[in-house]
Amino acid sequence: MFIVNAPVEKIIELDNQIFLIKIYCPEIAQSVQPGQFVNVRVSETIYPLLRRPFSVCDVEGDFFYLMFNIYGEGTKILAGKHFGDTIDILGPLGKGFNYEDTYETAIITAGGLGAAPFPFLIKAIGKKKNIFTFIGGKTYRDVITHGMTNISMSTDDGSLGFKGNVVQLLQANMEMLNSSKIKIFACGPNAMLRNLKEFCIKFNFECEASTECAMACGFGICQGCPIESTNNKDQYLLVCKDGPVFNVRDVVI
Do residues 111 and 190 lie in contact, with contact meaning Cβ atoms separated by under 8 Å? Predict the structure, then answer.
């Protein structure tokens, strides 16, 4: 884990007000694993007070990328950064995806900005496995395809691709899912992850999900990001330290 004042290389605006920020930071770029995150102090002042957690979206040499939209004051400040501005970054943090399992096909399942960690994961898997991506959103404006491969899309309103949510899209492709040994890698809103967990348990699919939670420290000291364990009803895990990636069977979403 490093604390680095890292310079911004550039800000890239994708479609639908989605931003990528490219940051020069060899320490993190060379040590981070897919699914891990960084905790970013977006301002040199005390406002906003808390750091903001972001999944590492991709790595390119000594640079890494973060993906975000403008949701509040913190991300508004981040979107206004320019070349050479420095950002106080803590990371890499948490536990990432176990992508070197014995599965044959990786099924990437993302909802909205849950697409953020997957360009890096897809690059890490490379040609070792088959990869298919299922992406969902409320409307076409919420579907993010940056860095994806073999894409199938769904929207709740039918404005793009399959009409329905991304779990229903998976159900519509059961023939493909049953054709090889698969593992599902997921990230998205909790409602999506709950439905996906039920789907995976029903059809006995392995699934790891990157979960989201408000957090402060990012490494387990503040105890501010608990998630309930299913293996011990009296036990709570921490999203920042024990996750953010969990087997969906191991936690209550």
Answer: no
Instruction: Write down how long the chain is.
Output: 253
Do 156 and 195 meet the contact criterion of CB atoms below 8 Å apart? no
For the segment 181-202, the average pLDDT, to the nearest whole number, is 97
Nearest to 116 by CA among 52, 47, 199: 52
Cβ burial of 218 (10 Å; 0-12, 13-18, 19+) is buried
Rounded CA separation 127/178 (Å): 21
Pairwise CA distance, residues 250 & 127, whole Å: 29
Give the tens place of pLDDT for each residue, 167-182.
999 999 999 898 889 9
Contact (CB, 8 A) for 157 and 139: yes
Nearest in space to 68 (alpha carbons), one of 7, 31, 33, 22:
22
Closest CA to 184 of 166, 172, 196: 196
Q: Is the pLDDT of residue 47 over 80?
A: no
Q: What is the pLDDT, as a whole number, of residue 224? A: 85
How many other β-carbons are positioned within 10 Å of the β-carbon of residue 229? 16
Position 60 pLDDT exceeds 80 = yes
% residues pLDDT > 70 (the chain): 99
Nearest to 12 by CA among 110, 83, 87, 72: 83
Is the Cβ–Cβ distance between 42 and 85 less than 8 Å? no
CA distance 5 to 245: 26
DSSP 164: S
Integer Cα distance of 231 and 221 in angstroms: 23
| Domains of the chain by start residue, with CATH | 2-93 (2.40.30.10), 105-210 (3.40.50.80)
Asked if residue 196 lies in contact with residue 185, where contact means CB atoms within 8 angstroms, the answer is no
